[in-house]
């Protein structure tokens, strides 16, 4: 039976499409954005998750690990994912819940069971598949979208659009809305910040425009990376050149994922005092989009 690794289910979401939505986060992503809010969703496989804030340094997990995959140092617990066999003994030994698996393998039937719990709230809302990257698990995601359509539940996908045109076409037919990020217009800057250039992404946006698909484009405003005027001018000019009326949503920087990077022992590229853009700064960025004749939403 078709399944995928789901690392979160957010209920009552209001920023992931129209109305109140249930958002399923599917593991695995082809991009490596330096500012990713969900770094635990990058790897496709289920892994052990360490919540450093809940750890009391009892080291019971280290004592029960027969694979010697767990070791403590000055930063807390270090997990050797190559040696970890996901036996779960360390989770059972942890008295505070600092250890858990970072995802759960779910079938389409199980996912629909979770979706149906929220149906009463879906007046004008529905379900959004996010991640990670939902198009990286096409068999599961498409089957789930079709099951939602059969159940008359509105659907959207939140995607980076780094996917083959053929697979994108199937998603465009299966989902009621596509929410897509356009992060950087310069291919070299895009490659440095995400690990891939943006040629496939921009071509896919053009493809969706030609097919008159229902698309909402989002621009994450990341200080020092995407929020500069040159980038926004380029993005706005590109969108304005399309034969489509795609609304543009500007997303303010969110610095609240720092602890995730700490738990994963991955570099977090922002300083502790890095802040969100002020309302005035957001309005200034919006004016760039508006000058190109585009509709915006902050």
Characterise this structure.
The protein is an alpha/beta fold and 298 residues long. It has two domains: 3-44 and 103-297, Aldolase class I (TIM Barrel, Alpha-Beta Barrel), CATH 3.20.20; 48-101, Alpha-Beta Plaits. 32% of the residues lie in helices and 22% in strands. The chain contains ten helices and 13 strands. The protein has helices at residues 60-64, 89-93, 108-116, 138-150, 165-174, 187-194, 199-210, 229-240, 258-264, 279-291, and strands spanning 3-13, 21-26, 48-50, 70-73, 76-79, 99-101, 104-107, 126-131, 155-159, 177-181, 215-221, 248-252, 296-297. The strands form three sheets. The protein has a nine-stranded mixed β-sheet. Strand 9 (155-159), helix 5 and strand 10 form a beta-alpha-beta unit. Helix 3 crosses helix 4 (138-150) and helix 4 (138-150) runs parallel beside helix 5 (165-174). The radius of gyration is 20 Å and the shape is globular. The model has no long low-confidence stretch (mean pLDDT 95).
């Amino acid at each position: 039976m078709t399944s995928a690794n789901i690392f979160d289910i957010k209920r009552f979401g209001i920023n992931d499409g129209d109305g109140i939505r249930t958002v399923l986060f599917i593991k695995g992503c082809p991009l490596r954005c330096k500012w990713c809010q969900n770094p635990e969703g990058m790897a496709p496989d289920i892994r052990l998750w360490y919540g450093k804030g809940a750890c009391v340094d009892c080291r019971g997990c280290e004592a029960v690990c027969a694979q010697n995959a767990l070791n403590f140092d000055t930063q807390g617990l270090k997990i050797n994912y190559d040696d970890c066999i996901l036996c779960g003994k360390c989770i059972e030994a942890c008295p505070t819940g600092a250890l858990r698996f970072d995802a759960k393998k779910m079938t389409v039937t199980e996912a629909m069971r979770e979706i149906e719990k929220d149906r009463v709230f879906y007046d004008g809302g529905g379900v959004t598949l996010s991640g990670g990257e939902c198009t990286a698990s096409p068999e599961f995601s498409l089957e789930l979208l079709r099951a939602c359509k059969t159940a008359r539940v509105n659907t959207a996908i939140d995607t980076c659009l780094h996917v083959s045109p053929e697979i994108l076409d199937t998603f465009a037919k299966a989902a009621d809305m596509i929410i897509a990020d356009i992060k950087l217009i310069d291919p070299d800057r895009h490659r440095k910040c995400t690990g891939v250039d943006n040629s496939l992404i921009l071509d896919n946006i053009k493809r969706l425009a030609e097919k008159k698909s229902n698309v909402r484009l989002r621009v994450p405003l990341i200080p020092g990376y995407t929020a500069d005027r040159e980038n926004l001018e380029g993005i706005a000019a590109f969108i304005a050149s399309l034969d489509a009326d795609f609304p543009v949503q500007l997303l303010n920087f969110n610095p609240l994922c720092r602890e995730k990077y700490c738990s994963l022992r991955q570099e977090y590229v922002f300083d502790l005092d890095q802040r969100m853009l002020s309302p005035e700064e957001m309005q200034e960025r919006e004016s760039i989009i508006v000058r190109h004749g585009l509709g915006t939403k902050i």
